[in-house]
Amino acid sequence: MLWRKKKSAAGGLLGVVLGSRSFGLVAMSQSGEVSFCTGVDLGGGELARLLKEQVERNQLHGDVNLVLLPSQYQMLLAEAPDVPDEELADAMRWRIKDLISTPLDQVEVDAFLLPDDAYRGRVRMCYAAAVRRDLIESLTATIKGAGLGLRYIDLADLAMRNLALQQSLGEQSVATVNLRDRGGLVTVTQGGQLYMSRSLQVGFDHINQQGYGVVDELVLDMQRSLDYYESQQNKGSVATILVSGKHQIEDQLIEELDRRLAARVVKLDASAGLRLAEGVDPAQLSRVALSLGGALRERGEHVAAAG
Q1: Among 36, 65, 93, 121, which residue is least crowded by beta carbons within 10 Å?
Q2: What is the bridge-based pairing of β-strands 125-132 and 107-113?
């Protein structure tokens, strides 16, 4: 259980992503309606002030699931130690101490197990995430300064698991891609369970600077990840790739990826299976997909627990 700050309470959940150049926020009611979403470019403005303005102007209430961006933590895949689940994070803390770039006494570490049949069931594997303690303290202060309560701190990888689950694609293997300015992330899930997460080196900055010629590199990067999943997991091939991003995903990019990858490539339909309140823009919701994945956390937890 990643960084649970307090017990669940009645009411909805706000999914929040706080980046260095922008932030995203999605409010979801307990009944599953998306009541509000926004993505704000800082443009030199102060993050704490702009977030508080959005909260007050739109009369937002409730607890927050703060979703960390991949650039805000180190993620490591390792063999899981033979310890009870509640001791996994402490055990992994010492196992990864020589593999992380920040001294161990300056980071918080949490970990989660992969499904029992991951890696063909040969060995029990887990992911461990390490995040600087001063970053957590700063982001927590920003959330509280906006008048919101912090219920969870989560990872982009698991937010993307929730997005894939929301698409209701059954038991097929689904890859979810989220592009950021300087790179991206690809995850693969099956039956609501996360099996793989890998970083991508190509992001919007590369496409804007080099044009669609850089898609060659993105295709190779994605194909390597899909090949790795298929060779290591024995779960068959990925059937569908869902693409989202911090900025609008152009049709040309989807067409290029769909033409050159074996799996079907489509834009993530962020509104799939959800009720949107009046005024909520589905296109904007797609651009803050990680925040939406955070707001969907408790739905994802229920499926993961049942899997």
Answers
A1: 121
A2: antiparallel
